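Q: Could you fold this chain for me?
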Amino acid sequence: MTAATTETPTRVGGVRALWAGNPQSVVQRGLIAARSSSWIIVFSGFFEPVFYLLSMGIGLGSLIGDVQTSTGTEVSYAAFIAPALLAVSAMNGAIYDSTWNVFFKLNYGKLYEGMLATSLGPLDVALGEILYALLRGLLYATGFMIIMQVLGLNLAWTAILAIPAVLLIAFGFASLGMAVTSYMKTFQHMDWINFVLLPMFLFSATLYPISVYPEWIQHIIMAFPLWHGVELVRGLTTGVLSPAMWWHVLYFVVMIAIGLVFTTKRLRALFLD
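A: Sure. Below is the predicted structure, expressed as structure tokens.
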């Protein structure tokens, strides 16, 4: 009788050292673990932008009246901030899973070390975690989109395209968020994430037009990823389309590529080199 031998997967360099083509196993593991999580925490991220919409868009909006978008279109204040809050909702959902959850798994749970001891490569782990974060962004965005439809804030049929748009936004934030988190060592470092997200939320033409700022500040705001997301979604929900929207799409495509490259290299440096 011969003893069965189990071969340990080896990485010999090149693409095979980074990619096994199995990121879905990482997503499946995350969904199984989510069954024991508190769903109140999950849904809290969804209700925050809803409360903003009801209090400011509906309440304060009755006093403000119409607002002019960056394309010169007059819309109600609620229709102005709703697409911005939709982009924020996708950002929040993706950022939470790609930062705090990844930070715990990386530094305390030691899950990635175990994953990379299997046939999975760093790109499998990175893409799997980002896709899992994308699911939360999709959940938040879809629920908020339904609320916008009920309130009559989707002003054109192109609003349906906002769903793939917010997926792109969530993908960008998740990939870059995981890349940044892979360099953080303590919980104090994680405070920098909120330090960056809060100004982006307040100043990325979410609650008022970018034209209220001096021109030099406008150029700074236009470098924020959330501003590109807000402009993209707002153009789709209001039906005012322009060729400039492709620049917003390109911004997030580059953001995704940078995040995936840095995350993959970082995981490989931490656990395989």
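A (continued): The first helix runs from residue 24 to 34.
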